[in-house]
Design brief:
The protein is an alpha/beta fold. The chain has 12 helices and 10 strands. 40% of the residues are buried. Bound molecules: S-adenosyl-L-homocysteine. S-adenosyl-L-homocysteine is lined by residues 63-66, 70, 92-95, 98, 123-124, 146-148, 151-152.
Length: 298
């Protein structure tokens, strides 16, 4: 008789404080936010050119805004483009820890008088429900969802809802990992074994572009090259390596709870040329992101 060991993988998303620890370390080990800031300063000004045409104020919605660092960077570009306009900013994020950090950041910035923030501590689908209950006819000029579509049940429906809120000339910005990134390759092989919940899924911009094309929605896309140093993942028992592995697999305590076969397979793939390059003794994971911009033409 053979004994089968059961391995229970718990999604990292179920543990807000561990998720935040992993995410913070990921930001330190990667050029994630730097590549976004480059995009925000080089491309976003052109993208936001026409959003304020003929208006006295702008409505912006940030979905899954996290601690707000990237949001504030975008707000400053929007303000430079349209200095006379007031901004009504709806922030949507279910994490009270994240919203707390965001409010803290705002309170330390003296030059945000042109923005009125509304804090919505809820998921995007709860926001959608409330919006429909209120029968709100308010429209938005700029909506962004950055690194958050992994956490909704139906990314296509979420995009359609927010797209329906766009004003004429309004823009919807989506940023996710690129299908060509190490993440995309990791998920091609291990999606079924890792993403075991309906609150976290392995969606890339490749998937979103296919979905939009099928629906006949026009969009522009921009590649954001980015890297992540994952060397510590290969040091047995290294605490930071374990946090990074949890983040990469979205599994809580991956090293301790995954089967030896799964762990070996994932570690092998992570340092395979499909996912990473080796440079100066470091393993550098391909963290390339992609931005997709949908414009409301009428
Ligand atoms: N946009 C930020 C944060 C990305 S982390 C940045 O790029 O730095 C993902 C964020 O999505 C987290 O703050 C998390 O709380 C939020 N999130 C998770 N599920 C969500 C949902 N269903 N709707 C909206 N936001 C969600």
């Amino acid at each position: 008789m053979s004994v089968t060991m059961a391995y229970f993988l718990n999604s990292l998303v179920n543990n807000d404080s561990r998720y935040l620890m992993c995410f913070q370390l990921f930001l330190e080990r990667s050029s994630e936010h730097q590549c976004m800031k480059d995009f925000i300063h080089q491309q976003l000004p052109h993208i936001l050119d026409s959003v304020g045409d003929g208006k006295s104020d702008l409505n912006v919605i940030g979905v899954g805004s996290g601690a707000g660092e990237i949001d504030l960077e975008m707000l400053s570009v929007l303000h430079q483009k349209h200095p006379g306009l007031m901004v009504d900013m709806e922030v949507v994020d279910p994490s009270s820890l994240q919203l707390h950090s965001y409010r803290d950041l705002v309170s330390k910035k003296p030059d945000l008088d042109y923005v009125k923030f509304t804090w919505n501590e809820m998921t995007s689908s709860e926001f959608e429900e409330r919006w429909q209950l209120k029968r709100s006819t308010k429209k938005a000029d700029f909506i962004h969802m950055i690194q958050m579509l992994y956490y909704v049940k139906d990314p296509g429906a979420t995009i359609s809802f927010f797209q329906s809120l766009l004003n004429k000339n309004g823009k919807l910005l989506i940023i996710l990992v690129s299908g060509e990134s190490g993440w995309g390759k990791l998920w091609q092989s291990y999606k079924d074994q890792l993403c075991c919940t309906d609150i976290s899924q392995c969606v890339t911009t490749g998937d979103i572009k296919n979905l939009l094309s099928t629906k006949g929605v026009n969009f522009h896309s921009y590649e954001l090259p980015s890297q992540m140093d994952i060397s510590e993942c290969f040091i047995e028992g290294d605490e930071k390596g374990e946090l990074l592995l949890d983040f990469l697999t979205e599994v809580q305590d991956f090293s301790k709870t995954a089967s030896p076969e799964l762990k070996d397979g994932v570690l092998d793939l992570l340092r395979h040329p499909d996912c990473s390059v080796q440079s100066n003794g470091k393993v550098i994971f391909n963290n390339t992101l992609e931005a997709i911009v949908i414009e409301q033409l009428n």
